[in-house]
């Protein structure tokens, strides 16, 4: 029997999670929701059973001639789990309004506060903590990128304090209501940014401080990390460790990966929607100065959390252990060492 998955909020993350669920042999999409009958709702209705996220808007869908199967409450009654992909903080409202009443398991995204769920999740770092749980929060794109990399360093070397600067894409490509045309915005202007504390919701014992800036780009985030190692490490040893992990892609400026623009150009050849589920780490950026290790990575914000949502579903229903779940997710999404 496949786990029946509902997706509440068919936006940037929701549509990707729906497509990824559809590729698995142990789960299926029983429906997705939209709030308004726009062009995305029309596309969603062609791909999946469509439900209305806000019951008061049913009439709008009927007027627009878009076939719907009911409201969010109908969808929840037909599902085993809901993956909430609604905007920041709306997930917590949906939990109180719908999920708790229906008794359904739920996954939340990184825009929610950590107390929305029993565990903040990253498949590599704490898959086991989500086993059998009812409410899990997949941490944000930046936090997922940081946690994966720090987890790999921490399990293979003795690490001390981590300092990281996040150079963040200002908005996603589809956004036309806000942006930053000509400027670099310290966000927040004072230290620390929320990313360090968020990493600690998954890796509690990591000493980390982060700062963040918004840049006028929509493509990817870039992270610059400085890790104080407890003993000197050779860059080639760090590269060997990262080469073992499929969810980390090592690229080289020498091969032409000179910026996020080139990384995205490569991804356009590789994947639908140019989705990069992997941390993209520049080989040449891995450098040591005494006990200080430096690494630069790029994160495709629209895609990186997608495999984590699939693994979270498997953990919550005890469908597979960590290695087996990650292997299946990687295989179905095409996550493999390309270089
Ligand atoms: P989005 O705006 O692209 O999509 C949200 C969708 O939810 C929209 O289709 C919207 O119409 C719908 N919605 C609005 N109100 C709703 C409600 N009450 N119930 C159900 N659906 C509702 O947002 P997104 O970028 O996909 O973000 C979703 C979540 O994922 C947020 O928590 C965000 O922080 C997190 N996240 C986003 C990114 C990213 O870069 N886009 C990366 C990682 C995590």
TrEMBL record:
Record: active site: 141
Gene Ontology terms: cellular component: cytoplasm
Residues that coordinate or bind NAD(+): 12-13, 111, 169, 301
CDD domains given in the database record: GAPDH_II_C (cd18127), GAPDH_II_N (cd02278)
Annotated binding of D-glyceraldehyde 3-phosphate, by residue: 140-142, 195-196
Cell location: Cytoplasm
Pathway connected to this protein: Carbohydrate degradation; glycolysis; pyruvate from D-glyceraldehyde 3-phosphate: step 1/5
Classification via InterPro entries: DapB_N, GlycerAld/Erythrose_P_DH, GlycerAld_3-P_DH_AS, GlycerAld_3-P_DH_cat, GlycerAld_3-P_DH_NAD(P)-bd, Glyceraldehyde-3-P_DH_2_arc, NAD(P)-bd_dom_sf
Top-level EC class as recorded in UniProt: oxidoreductase
Domain of life of the source: Archaea
Keywords of this entry: Cytoplasm, Glycolysis, NAD, NADP, Oxidoreductase
Glyceraldehyde 3-phosphate dehydrogenase NAD(P) binding domain location: 3-141
Annotated catalysed reactions: D-glyceraldehyde 3-phosphate + phosphate + NAD(+) = (2R)-3-phospho-glyceroyl phosphate + NADH + H(+); D-glyceraldehyde 3-phosphate + phosphate + NADP(+) = (2R)-3-phospho-glyceroyl phosphate + NADPH + H(+)
Main localization category: cytoplasm
Pfam families xrefs: DapB_N (PF01113), Gp_dh_C (PF02800)
GO molecular function: 4-hydroxy-tetrahydrodipicolinate reductase; glyceraldehyde-3-phosphate dehydrogenase (NAD+) (phosphorylating) activity; NAD binding; NADP binding
GO biological process: glycolytic process; lysine biosynthetic process via diaminopimelate
The protein's Enzyme Commission number: 1.2.1.59
HAMAP family linked to this entry: G3P_dehdrog_arch
Family classification: Belongs to the glyceraldehyde-3-phosphate dehydrogenase family.
Descriptive protein name: Glyceraldehyde-3-phosphate dehydrogenase
Organism this protein belongs to: Archaeoglobus fulgidus
Phylogenetic lineage: Archaea, Methanobacteriati, Methanobacteriota, Archaeoglobi, Archaeoglobales
UniProt gene name: gap
């Amino acid at each position: 029997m496949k786990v029946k998955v509902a997706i509440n909020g068919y936006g940037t993350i929701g549509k990707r999670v729906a497509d990824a669920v559809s590729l698995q042999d142990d789960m299926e999409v029983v429906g997705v929701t939209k709030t308004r009958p726009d062009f995305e709702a029309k596309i969603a209705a062609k791909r999946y059973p469509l439900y209305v996220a806000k019951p008061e808007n049913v009439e709008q869908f009927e007027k627009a001639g878009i076939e719907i199967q009911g409201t969010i409450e109908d969808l929840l009654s037909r599902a085993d789990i809901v993956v909430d992909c609604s905007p920041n903080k709306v997930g917590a409202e949906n939990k109180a309004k719908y999920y708790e009443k229906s008794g359904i398991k739920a996954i939340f995204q990184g825009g929610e506060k950590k107390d929305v769920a029993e565990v903040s999740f990253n498949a590599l770092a704490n898959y086991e903590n989500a086993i059998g749980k009812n409410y899990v929060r997949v941490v944000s794109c930046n936090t997922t990128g940081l946690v994966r990399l720090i987890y790999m360093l921490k399990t293979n070397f003795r690490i001390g304090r981590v300092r990281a600067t996040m150079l963040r894409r200002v908005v996603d490509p589809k956004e036309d209501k806000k942006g930053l045309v000509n400027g670099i915005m310290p966000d927040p202007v004072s230290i620390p940014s929320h990313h360090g504390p968020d990493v600690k919701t998954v890796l509690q014992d990591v000493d980390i401080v982060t700062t963040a800036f918004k840049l006028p780009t929509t493509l990817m985030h870039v992270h610059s990390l400085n890790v104080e190692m407890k003993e000197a490490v050779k860059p080639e040893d760090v590269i060997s460790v990262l080469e073992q992990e499929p969810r980390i892609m090592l690229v080289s400026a020498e091969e032409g990966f000179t910026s996020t623009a080139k990384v995205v150009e490569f991804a356009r050849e590789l994947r639908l929607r140019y989705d990069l589920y992997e941390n993209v780490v520049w080989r040449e950026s891995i450098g040591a100065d005494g006990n200080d290790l430096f690494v630069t990575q790029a994160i495709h914000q629209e895609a990186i959390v997608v495999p984590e949502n699939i693994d979270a579903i498997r953990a919550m229903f005890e469908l597979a252990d960590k290695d087996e779940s990650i292997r299946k997710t990687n295989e179905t999404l095409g996550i493999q060492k390309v270089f």
